[in-house]
Write a structure and sequence with these properties.
This protein is of the alpha+beta class. Helices cover 66% and strands 16% of the residues. It has a two-stranded antiparallel sheet.
Amino acid sequence: MKEKVKKVLVWIFEFVLFCGYFYVLFVNLVCGFGYGGISSRGREMLEEYVQGIYVYDDGRVKVEWKER
């Protein structure tokens, strides 16, 4: 029984690693390879969708979205 549970856990672990690898690959292909590609896309999205971001003294963060 323990051997079967161990095999299932190893399979789940390998599956998660496999999915993570393809997630990173997909993000790099869509956003461009390198950190600059990802960060520049983030700024473009902020400029397109966000009107303002407000950070309050008590730690709250409020995002004001642009009207579409």
